Amino acid sequence: MQGAAQITNPTCNGSRTGSINVTASGNRGAVLYFWNNPLAGGQNPASLPAGNYTVTLTDAAQCSDTLNVTLTDPPALNLSLNLERQPTAANPTGGSLRVTFSGGTPNYAISTNRSNNFSNIGNAGFLNLDNLRAGNLTVILRDRVGCTDTAFIQIEEIPCNLSVDVAATRADCASSHLNSSVSNGTTPYQYTWSNPGFNGIANPRNATPGRYVVTVSDAQGCSASDSIVVLDDPAALQIQLRIANPRCPGDLGLLTVQAISGGQGPFNLTLDNGTPQRFNNPPFSLRNLNPGNFSLIISNASGCSIDTSFTIVAPTALSLDLGADTTLRKGASLTFSPQVNFDPAFISWSPLTALTGTEGLNARAEPQVSTTYALVLRDSSGCEVRDNIRVIVSGQLEAYFPTAFSPNEDNVNDYFMAYANTDVERIEVLRIYDRWGGLVFEGKDIPLNDPSQGWDGTTKGQSAAGGLYVYYSVVRLRNGSTYRAAGEMTLLR
């Protein structure tokens, strides 16, 4: 006896739609069928899942045959969903879903809980479902033999929180740069401007005065707008400067920016192409400027600038010349003739000993000892110049005592004292006697040419009477020798 089997595989993967039809030939009498799988029984078991089956056929003569049979599932249906674009508040039907499928038995049909009808989709392997709103979506895939697979997805709507802020920064005196700041959106962004030449540009350059509106759209279809007004060209910068020239030779000049119009600070000041100096508002000063010509650039926060130049004028140098040192015979006089290049406002001669006419330039000297005279002059601005001249007296004594003095506090000849040249070290003793021989003054170790160390015309705290007095002195020379000098002098009242 011999058995044979005809199979029908399951229609869908995992289903119990398979069947086995067993036939026997050459058998004697009735045939019994013994299966190893409890799901199968009899000669033609049905509603079988995929799997391996073994059946043994036995006839009445105890002849038998064994068959091994395999039922195979078709490929499983595979269905996957991928949300490529969510709907937004701006575009509530803008959702897009990619459906990918495989397995089963092509061709395919698809249905959703929003359509309830199957649509044939061939065997392309994927398709896009567009124009989707937010909510639950169920997708059902069916193949040619009626097998199905189901997938679910929750679609959420994206709210539109897109915002844009546009600002302008002054580029130069004629134009500005526009700057767009976008937030809470999905890139890439699209920029549409009221000036079509700026479309597609986030930060346009060189915007001339006027009103600008920008609309920004993001990848989700949301949009936002903002506007800005670029002001007219700023007025030309104007500056007011004050220049203070040096007052005296050796002084330095001063430049002050007193006022600026046509711009806002902070300002930059550049002198002679040097390092810019920043200041917020005038006045602003540059000090210690040497005389000369300078270039000056002042720019404001918008980059507008003004170029100018200025000059620090050097003061005229004051000139004073008393001439070369000169020699006089004892008893002779000299009238000074200083050479000056200005009209002095102040004249000071020193020392005043043996000097007259000191209120003017042409003082007259009649020194008894060699003397160095100094002249100090000042102009109307207070600038000062000075010069010295040495008057050498020939045939002179080392120390000279005047024949009269007038202690009337007029700062002229108020003291009786010795005048000496550099050969004298000091006056060791100076005594003054009245005409009756009474001692009215005594000084010791008196330094040279110091009026405050001489006799001031008082005795015992009282003013001495005018008249004739006698002096006696001991003069010490630098070579160590001494000599005595005595004589008469008159106290004038």
Would you mind describing this structure in some detail?
The structure is a single chain. The protein is mainly beta. It has 6 domains: 70 residues, Sandwich (Immunoglobulin-like); 78 residues, Immunoglobulins (Immunoglobulin-like); 68 residues, Immunoglobulin-like; 73 residues, Immunoglobulin-like, CATH 2.60.40; 75 residues, Immunoglobulin-like (Sandwich); 93 residues, Sandwich (Immunoglobulin-like), CATH 2.60.40. Helices cover 0% and strands 51% of the residues. The protein has no helices and 42 strands. The strands form 14 sheets. A 5-stranded mixed sheet has the order 35-42-41-37-38, with no helix packed on it. A 4-stranded antiparallel sheet has the order 9-8-11-12, with no helix packed on it. The radius of gyration is 63 Å and the shape is rod-shaped.
Which key features would you list for this structure?
rod-shaped; Immunoglobulin-like; five-stranded mixed β-sheet; 493 residues; four-stranded antiparallel β-sheet; mainly beta
Give the SSE map.
Blueprint: E1 2-8, E2 19-25, E3 32-35, E4 51-58, E5 64-71, E6 78-85, E7 95-102, E8 108-112, E9 119-122, E10 126-132, E11 135-142, E12 148-155, E13 163-170, E14 176-183, E15 190-193, E16 210-217, E17 223-230, E18 238-244, E19 253-261, E20 267-271, E21 277-279, E22 284-289, E23 292-299, E24 305-312, E25 320-321, E26 326-329, E27 334-335, E28 339-340, E29 346-350, E30 355-356, E31 364-365, E32 371-378, E33 384-394, E34 399-400, E35 404-405, E36 419-420, E37 424-433, E38 439-446, E39 458-459, E40 462-463, E41 467-477, E42 482-491
Parallel strand pairs: 26-33, 35-42
Antiparallel strand pairs: 1-2, 3-4, 4-5, 6-7, 7-10, 8-9, 8-11, 11-12, 13-14, 15-16, 16-17, 18-19, 19-22, 20-21, 20-23, 23-24, 25-28, 27-31, 29-32, 30-31, 32-33, 34-36, 37-38, 37-41, 39-40, 41-42
